[in-house]
Amino acid sequence: MGNLDIQNRFIEDLSISADYEKVASKYRAIFEKIAQGVVEREQQRILPYEQIDWLKHAGFGALRVPVKFGGDGVSLPQLFQLLTELAQTDSNIVQALRGHFAFVEDRLNAHKFKSQELWFKRFVQGDLVGNAWTEIGHVKIGDVITRVTQNNNQLLVNGKKYYSTGTIFADWVDLFAYDERTDQHVIAAISRHASGVEVQDDWDGFGQKTTGSGTLTLSNVAVEADHILPFEQRFKYQTAFYQVIHLATLSGIAQSAVATFIHEVQKRDRIFSHGNADLVRNDPQILQVIGKASAQAYASESITTQTAEALQRAYISHFSESEVKNIQANNDAELEAAQGQVVISDLVLELTSKLFNALGASASTTTKQLDRFWRNARVVSSHNPVVYKEKVIGDWEVNREPLPFVWQIGTSPKVGAA
């Protein structure tokens, strides 16, 4: 907990640390089962309903819920370490659960002001939360078409979202909307099973194919008043949190790619006449390819762990009495997550491409799906543009321009202006 002065009444309600091996051992057998069908799911684009259900019933969604309320109580570094392990088996599943863990984190922070025992109970019993924030089409930057309105005594939500990652597998939806009653941005926590909720599996990306990132349509969906959460109260380090899940995903992809290519090299019996050894596994140039990729994967995981430590400090600082320390901890978390993204994205994209230098043209067969590592890493790395992260890091370092904790995407106001 460092030197942060945590108010005593919160200590037992926090998720500060757990016995990592004890917690991980509950899920590793499930990870092994998940790994068995990953190539087939990639080939045939089979959504991992069954695999996510295994995790759900094992309590994986309650990893961060404090032990006091029935969860595992893991710290953020431990959460991201376990997500990296899961990403080694199937990176799509980690991304599908990204929205869930962000909503859990928000409820953990909200517990400082109002008991979140009801939500904790839901997470412990296995409820999962999907994500639905982004609108596409001609939605001007800064605008939100999804609206909360009131009809007599009933609150209703109408709208359409894309990139609704994980929602197709979920019980609840973490929905970004505009509340016309109060003229403010809100999070509407709606039941995935409510009347008027429709989820389409229409994500057509060339990577991360089975994350359930399709279209969500909401037609007069009823929502309870206490499930309308002002967006301004969202946990401060959310952008960094979302990004570090991507870093854990990339780290898992890197480790899986290295392990898979090592196996391919070990069993390869074809050599080139102008190679350097009688077996590929003894060729110094091939060993160099593997060695560099291994080092890059190690660096990726190490950086992810470092950024997760910064997030943990931001989480704990939220419960301290020092607003100055809280602001500093959140700035550090946002900066380190951005720096980690810039470095890890390049590391993993490079290693998942250059590992093919260790094998021949046969490595391109779709039967093996070895290209999935690069494809998945490329899509994960595309979510938050690296070039803009590089810019905001530089602006912070040179000018101390505040880091953007919240940002949006939308159609330029210049479009159609003429």
Automatic annotation (TrEMBL):
**Pfam families in alphabetical order:** Acyl-CoA_dh_2
Give the record's GO CC terms: cytoplasm
> Would the keyword Metal-binding turn up in this protein's UniProt record?
no
What keywords were assigned to this record? FAD, Flavoprotein, Oxidoreductase
Domain named Acyl-CoA dehydrogenase C-terminal is located at 248-384
Q: Enumerate the cofactors the protein uses.
A: FAD
Tell me which InterPro entries the record gives. Answer: Acyl-CoA_dehydrogenase, Acyl-CoA_DH_C, Acyl-CoA_Oxase/DH_mid-dom_sf, AcylCo_DH-like_C, AcylCoA_DH/ox_N_sf, AcylCoA_DH/oxidase_NM_dom_sf
A GO molecular function term, named singly, is: flavin adenine dinucleotide binding
Its organism's taxonomic lineage begins at:
Eukaryota, Metazoa, Ecdysozoa, Nematoda, Chromadorea
Keyword Hydrolase set for record: no
Biological-process GO terms, alphabetical: fatty acid beta-oxidation using acyl-CoA dehydrogenase
The protein's organism comes out as: Caenorhabditis remanei (Caenorhabditis vulgaris)
Signal sequence range: none
Its name, as the record gives it, is Acyl-CoA dehydrogenase C-terminal domain-containing protein
